[in-house]
Amino acid sequence: MAKITLVDDDENIVTSVSLALESHGHTVTAYFDGAAGLEALESDPPDLAILDVKMPRMDGMEVLRRLRRASETPVIILTSKDDEIDEILGFNLGADDYIHKPFSQRLLIERVKAVLRRAGIEGEEPQSAAASAEAASRAIKRGKLTLDPARHDCLWEGKAVKLTVTEFLLLQSLAQRPGFVKSRDNLMDAAYDDQVYVDDRTIDSHIKRMRKKFRDVDPEFDAIETLYGVGYRYRET
Length: 237
Description:
Blueprint: E1 3-7, H1 11-23, E2 27-31, H2 34-43, E3 48-52, H3 60-67, E4 75-79, H4 84-93, E5 97-100, H5 105-118, H6 130-137, E6 140-142, E7 145-148, E8 153-156, E9 159-160, H7 165-175, H8 184-191, H9 200-217, E10 224-227, E11 231-234
Parallel strand pairs: 1-2, 1-3, 3-4, 4-5
Antiparallel strand pairs: 6-7, 7-8, 8-9, 10-11
């Protein structure tokens, strides 16, 4: 199954989460402070990272911020804070999902499954969906853009653009039908599992981060258009 790195300073949570994940076949490596967790994530990237927010030496948000400088490892944030600002900050920094403490093991397992499935790491397609899965894995070329879902590669004018799983799925949804407007609800459906709810600002945050990454490669990038009050569309260039 998946290799998962868990970073949390609460021994009880580390024990219960590790046992739950391992019972579903995953391999879990745990760290009890942010600095040690970041070092492990950078030296031996897992399939998924689960980060607590409040930790000694380095909090989870700073771990995520530093991790995103060079890695697109899927990340789930754990927090005891019921604070919308923290959640928005986490998504702005590139988190893939967010779980508030206390949480049930069942919820955790379903969220982990959802993120891994979106990353193409876990989950078998039913036989009846084989054609759809094959179509979704085909490379997409739209002007200066090349997307290869099978390899999770994104190129702009031949230059690599590193996208998170969520960003890649959002862009793939837009680029599949250039010129067609996708509402935020459409984009949520494309990038998130049915069991995960996100609001409009989360989609906007992902689009903002994605645009910045493309503009780091091409300052004139303007292929993702905003239609205020409606949604977004991809303009082939």
